[in-house]
Every structure is written in C-alpha cells, then in structure tokens.
C-alpha cells in the first residue's frame, strides 16, 4: 500500500511540476534570474517532499506548492510592469571589460576569476582577450561580448555581396527513423514526394535516421550507418 502511494505521489509531483513550468513560461527556464532561481529551488524542494515524504499530508504540500507558484507568477507579472522591481528581482547587467580594459573591481564583486572570463570568451570564439572592446555579464549569468572593430568577423554586407536568395525555416521530415507527418501536412509535402527524393539519393527509408529540408532548400539525409572508417571518438 505504501509503495503504491509513493508511486502515485511521485507521478502527481512530476505532473504538477510540468504544469507549473508551463504556467511560468519558457523565459523562466531559459533566463534563470535571481527570482527564477529561488522559485525553482523552492518549488523543487516542495515537489520532492510531495513525492516521497509520507509524514507530511498531501493537502499541506499542495497548499504550499500553490502558494509558492502564485508568488512566483505574481512577482514575474509585477516585474514586467515595474522596472525598479524588475531590477531588484532579476539584478542588472554588469560590465566586466570596458573599452578593452578589465574592470577588476566588478570582477571581484561578482567573484569571477580571469580563468572563468577567458573560458566564457572562448565559448564565444574569442581566444585573445585583447580583441574584446566590451564584455557584459547578463542577468541570466551569460556573458555578452562586443569585439573590437578590427576583430569583428567580416559580413556579406562588408564585402558588398548582394545575395537575395530567400531562406526558409528548416523543415524536419524524418526523425529517429519515423516520418513526421505533421510537418509534411503543414508544408503541403506528400509522402510520395519524400519517397521520390529518397530514391534519387539511392537510399532506403528504413536506413534513414534523420532528414530535413535546410534553410537553403536543400535536403539533408543522415543514415544510421555512418560509414566512417576511423571515427574520432567511439564508445
């Protein structure tokens, strides 16, 4: 009996957290500001107790869960309306590098080491710190970088290349070996057309893991068999 109750409570806890995540929205998951972090930790702890703590009644845990969800949603709503409150709840961006100069006082205040800063810059494909004009620690913990003028990558506009080719949003046709019927229907693509494209490539649909129409209109097929004689990393 106790085992079945634990299973039921666990399923209920998982379902509730999924519903709460949907209510709070994608921005909470993606950004994780101070307020979002506290809400996530608290709601996670309450839900964990709901799943396996039989000494506390479900009614009390559900009440607590609903109250904290209400607080998190209300603070998120108020933060959208009030800039000062938003600044207090979410924090402010902090400049780490200004005009090519590292601001050591801000680094110390945020407890960020030069190793961490260099690591974040490398994730932005910047391996030389002298190439950075501005670096800002955003509210969600990510670092935004503005390279110096001479270190910026060249764009098509800089080269005066006028390419008016229209790009589309990629359309996934096959995933994990199964045809995505909804995508075919939404984009007026028939299964006959898909099979004809597979046949043109000399492939068989049973051997295809993934297929997508890229943004440039070309079709990419990935087979289950990679046919790589010497893979770089094989587990």
Question: What is this structure, in a nutshell?
Answer:
With 235 residues, the chain is of the alpha+beta class.
Order of helices and strands: HHHHHEEHHEEEEHHEE
Number of E strands: 8
Largest sheet: 4 strands, antiparallel
Helix amount, in percent? 40-55%
Using the alpha-carbon principal axes, give the shape. Answer: flat
Beta-strand residue percentage: 15-25%
Number of helices: 9
Uncertain stretches of 5 or more adjacent residues: none
Give the C-alpha Rg: 26 Å
The overall pLDDT, averaged over residues, is: 79
Please characterize this protein's 3D structure:
By secondary structure, the chain is α+β, with helices and mostly antiparallel strands. It has helices at residues 2-24, 26-31, 34-52, 58-81, 83-90, 104-109, 114-123, 181-186, 191-200; strands at 94-98, 101-102, 132-137, 143-147, 171-175, 178-179, 208-213, 219-223.
Main traits of this protein?
235 residues, alpha+beta, 4-stranded antiparallel beta sheet, 9 helices, 8 strands, flat
């Amino acid at each position: 009996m106790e085992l079945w109750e634990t299973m039921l409570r666990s399923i209920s806890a998982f379902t509730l957290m999924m519903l709460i995540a949907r209510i709070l929205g994608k921005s909470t998951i993606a950004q994780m500001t101070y307020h979002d972090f506290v809400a996530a930790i608290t709601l996670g702890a309450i839900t964990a107790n709901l799943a396996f703590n039989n000494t506390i009644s479900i009614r009390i845990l559900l009440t607590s869960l609903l109250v904290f969800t209400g607080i998190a949603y209300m603070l998120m709503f108020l933060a959208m309306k009030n800039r000062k409150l938003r600044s207090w709840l979410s924090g402010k961006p902090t400049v780490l590098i200004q005009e090519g100069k590292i601001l050591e006082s801000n680094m110390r205040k945020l407890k960020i080491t030069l190793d961490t800063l260099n690591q974040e810059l490398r994730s932005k494909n910047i391996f030389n710190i002298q190439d950075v004009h501005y670096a800002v620690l955003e509210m969600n913990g990510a670092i935004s970088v503005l390279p110096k003028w001479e270190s910026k990558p060249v764009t098509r506009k800089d080269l005066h290349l006028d390419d008016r080719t229209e790009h589309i949003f990629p359309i996934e046709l096959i995933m994990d070996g199964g045809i995505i019927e909804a995508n075919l229907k939404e984009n007026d693509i028939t299964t006959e057309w898909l099979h004809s494209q597979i046949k043109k490539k000399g492939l068989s649909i049973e051997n295809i893991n993934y297929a997508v129409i890229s943004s440039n209109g070309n079709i990419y097929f990935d087979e289950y068999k990679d046919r790589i004689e010497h893979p770089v990393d094989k587990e």
